[in-house]
Amino acid sequence: MEAISEKDLELEDGEDSCSEEGSEASGSVDEYVLPRDPKERDRLNVQHELWKKVMKGICPMPKDALDEFLAAKTNPAIMDLGSGSGVWAVEMAQVYPSARVVGIDLVAAVPPPIPPNCLFVPGSLTGGTCMMWAQYDIVHARLLVDRIKGEVAKEAAINRAVLCLRSGGIIILSNYEEFFVDSDKNPLPPAQDTGNNSSRSWCTRLVAEAFRRPGDRLLGDFYHRCLAKNVKVEKGSVNSEFHYIPVGWDGGEGDAGKEIGEMGRRHAHELFDTCKGILKSKGVLQEKIDHWFDKAQEEISGDQSESKRIFHAVRSVWARKL
Ligand SMILES: C[S@@+](CC[C@H](N)C(=O)[O-])C[C@H]1O[C@@H](n2cnc3c(N)ncnc32)[C@H](O)[C@@H]1O
Q: Which portions of the sequence form the region Disordered (predicted)?
């Protein structure tokens, strides 16, 4: 396939690049607090491998359904919104060589080598930049919508993402839920400074402090509601699924789960390290940061009295545009 260029992204005849609807929907402020450095890029790549193992594929929706959907398209087009290191877009381009895959991020990634059917361009889902309306069969946004501040802005961003789809196209949104869950998949809200924390989690607390979240919301339910009430989304087409990443234990799967559990622990450690940096940059007292970090580490250590068997819960929601 010929390499695609930014020219290929130009709008089809008669399409308005900045429709009223899209412009009105923007108007929000990004709250992007993660660092953009090689260490963070490596963490995103480790996380990508972990998610692939847990989801048994590159996408949360069933692989057969995705293969069938893309095989039925003549020139399938896929957009990865908030493409980060670019790893998802590159792999999708490799797995589906007949598709055109475009990664969009505030800062365009340049992951070498880029397959000829893949391109990265700078852009913002929340405003400033014109998005490419009605051009894609799949719009994928992983770990992006939770970065947008406030429910109104989040919903507007989801609606903008839907507008990038062609008729019949599929939007796929994935995020961690705000809380870690116990071995029975019950939510563990943030641990508190005093009192009994047996049904709470320091991992939830550390992440909630870093990203300034309550630590008790089901983001997936919110995404589900937004898509279900969007008039451009086919009624009854909204699906969702949880995937659970064991952190430092086998997830109840015995030997089969050990590798994922170990990857889960390594990734959690890197995430907690990132949280430390974020909290420091926000001016939180080092003493407090170290305390939350040590407690979270203890919880996933597996060999201390305060350790817990926990999962990091990922929720994915997908739906079809009318
Ligand atoms: C946590 S990273 C996830 C990256 C990638 N989706 C993944 O799963 O590895 C979030 C990414 O979203 C990008 N981002 C944040 N706000 C954005 C916006 N308004 N429009 C486009 N990208 C945005 C950030 O630059 C960052 O690369």
A: 1-38
